[in-house]
Amino acid sequence: MNEKIACAYIRVSTESQTELSPDSQIKTVREFARQKGFIIPNDFIFRDDGISGRTADKRPQFKKMIAIAKEKPSPFSAIFVWKYSRFARNQEEAVFYKGMLKKIGIEVISTSEPIIDGPFGSLIERIIEWFDEYYSINLSTEVKRGMRERVSRGGAVSIPAFGYDIVDKEYVINPVKAEIVRKIFGDFLLGKSCNTIAKELNNIGILTSKGNRWEKRTVEYILYNPVYTGKIRWNPSGKTGRNFSDKNIMIVKGTHTPIIEDKIFTEAQKKLAQNKSKYPPHTTDRKGSKDYMLKGLVKCSSCGGKLSLGSNNSLQCINYSHGKCGVSHYISLSILNDIVLSLIEKQFNSDSFTLTKNNYHPRYTEMDVDLLIKGEMAKIERIQEAYESGAYSLSQYRDRKQKVLEEISILKNKITPPHMSAQNNSKTLCEKKKILILQLKSEKISEREKNELLKSFIREIVYNKTLNSVDIYFYC
């Protein structure tokens, strides 16, 4: 009898899972496959360690296995697993991937859960999948309950904050990093800004716990963290992020040694609150932020970061604001507007300058919109096909489809303003230049429309604070 080629998928969820180790799973799966007339080459053993089976998106080896399975012809005809729960703990995904594999002639076989042929066997398999999903959900609930209990007793349940190491599941002070934490609190109370502290730490080569450069927000995160006073902060609903006032957060007295005295921490909180009320957050280039003519076009000459609009109607390098850039590029928006318009007008008056098309249309005619919507609808069909072929997981399918639907909604709101015809006419190049300048200077045209006009022929604007210069780069 000729031996057939198969692959093995091995997965363990956590280090505490001791039912069968990865090596034992491989040994068991290979022996079972041999008995069924299959061989499993080393190249066809796919292993995800310490990863949950709830979603395929977070399992790189699983996704690689599926991609190889879809090759024509497929290099293997079966996937062996120790238990069906190793393949997936989400019944919806289990049914989807097994169905997709079955269409191309690949069967998923469990070594410890034999399924009889026929419809009754399929029913038993669905019941196993349902139980696996229920077990996963229940396990997650039990784990969270255990974490809550440990937190209530002051124990550590997450990776250590900067300044601590973790030994035998307890936070232990790291002497070197603890001194840096004390310096951060001390410098802040002496009047240094979080931005300045971040720059100083970067200048002397100190990195965060994740090996990154310091930013204003990472310094703030330390100043807000009560772990340094010997407390444990934990959010059972998920990551706290920067929402330090989340009502779900638990703060209890911990079992670890404090790095900062309560009095110092309290003073820091008062100063943080004062700064927050005194200096409101900068307006950043996000959806819903203030529109202005130069939005998204101006870049810092030192780091290449974008200049964003602040609360006092001025621009500043966003990386400088976060402590990652060492050179301030502060400039009044009105001053930079005048400089840019003057340079554009001067360039337009130059005989050597010609306008070039950027294939960018600030607004569209009704016909344009219809064509673009048809294109987006075609994308939905392709996404559907990719999902059915197994190229996308369920979550990827939903996300991509939602983005396309949002784009269609945006397109439906686009119209061509009366001053910007999308069709060619007989106007000379010189007249077009004059019209553009008039439009950019007009108070009747919105800042958003001016911004879109600039983006139609300007790639970027670089501001150099040191040289007090502005360079405009046109599309060519």
Q: What distinguishing features does this structure have?
A:
flat; three-stranded mixed beta sheet; 476 residues; four-stranded parallel beta sheet; Hect, E3 ligase catalytic domain fold; alpha/beta; Rossmann fold; 3 domains; 15 helices
Report what the structure shows:
The chain is of the alpha/beta class. It has 3 domains: 136 residues, Rossmann fold; 115 residues, Hect, E3 ligase catalytic domain fold (Alpha-Beta Complex); 138 residues, no CATH class. The protein is 44% helix and 13% strand. The protein is built from 15 helices and 16 strands. The strands form 6 sheets. Strands 4-2-5-6 form a 4-stranded parallel sheet, with helices on both faces. A 3-stranded mixed sheet has the order 11-15-16, covered by helices on one side. Helix 7 crosses helix 8, helix 11 runs antiparallel to helix 14 and helix 12 runs antiparallel to helix 13. The longest helix is centred in the N-terminal third of the chain and has 34 residues. It is flat.
Over the alpha carbons, how many angstroms does the gyration radius reach?
30 Å
Shape field: flat
Distance between the termini: 67 Å
Q: Quote the average pLDDT.
A: 76
Helix content: 40-55%
User: How many E strands?
Assistant: 16
What structural class do the secondary elements suggest?
alpha/beta
Biggest sheet overview: 4 strands, parallel
User: So how many helices?
Assistant: 15
Biggest β-sheet: strands ordered side by side in the sheet: 4-2-5-6
Q: Approximately how much beta-strand content do the residues carry?
A: 5-15%
Low-confidence stretches: 282-288, 356-364, 415-427
Number of domains: 3
